[in-house]
Amino acid sequence: MLLKPLHEETGTGLVLPVWIGSQEATSILIALEGRQAPRPLSHDLIVTLFAAVGAELQRVDLTRIDEGTFFAEISLTTPSGPQTIDSRPSDAIALALRADATIWVAEDVLEVAGVPAELVDFGTETGDEERLDEFKRFLEDVDPEDFQG
């Protein structure tokens, strides 16, 4: 999965590749496409539980990277006050998409683990297939330890 700064022009700056499992990827894809699984997925259940107890997911933050592992936090507003919960980034992103919450990345995380956006600009221009192939080769050869600070 790739995260990109919101206000940057396509193909400029950095994007953040976050490695996630296939189940989390499926959950995120379902949320991105606005679809519903035949039965609630874990992330759907969590959002429903938040609503049932009067909590609202405000934002998620990818806070740091340590030895190639990303860390995230979920910020909630609850009847008893604000709460911050430690989370895997993939779960935090899947929840944010379902709750229409913002996703933030710490600048130092983007600086350490970001890759040039021109490697992942998959528009419709001629040559995009070659850029996509180049990015796929990059992903095949990259190791999460390459992003250690």
Structure write-up:
It is built from 5 helices and 7 strands; from the N terminus they run ββααβββαβαβα. The chain is globular. The two termini are about 20 Å apart. With about 150 residues, it is an alpha+beta fold. Helices cover about 35% and strands about 25% of the residues. The chain has helices at about 20-30, 40-50, 90-100, 105-115, 130-140, and strands at about 1-5, 15, 55-65, 70-80, 80-85, 100-105, 115. α2 crosses α3. A 4-stranded mixed β-sheet has the order 5-4-3-6.
Topology, pairings included?
Layout: E1 2-3, E2 14-17, H1 22-32, H2 42-52, E3 56-66, E4 69-78, E5 81-87, H3 89-99, E6 102-105, H4 107-113, E7 115-116, H5 128-141
Parallel strand pairs: 3-6
Antiparallel strand pairs: 1-2, 2-7, 3-4, 4-5
Task: Briefly say what this structure is.
The protein is of the alpha+beta class. It contains five helices and seven strands, in the order ββααβββαβαβα. Helix 2 (42-52) crosses helix 3 (89-99).
Indicate the mean pLDDT: 82
What is the C-alpha radius of gyration, as a whole number of Å?
Answer: 17 Å
Low-pLDDT ranges: none
Structural class: alpha+beta
Strand content: 25-35%
Question: Care to count the β-strands?
Answer: 7
Please give the largest β-sheet: 4 strands, mixed
State the end-to-end distance. 21 Å
Coarse shape = globular
**Total helical segments:** 5
Q: Helix fraction?
A: 25-40%
* Helix/strand order: EEHHEEEHEHEH
Strand order of the largest sheet: 5-4-3-6
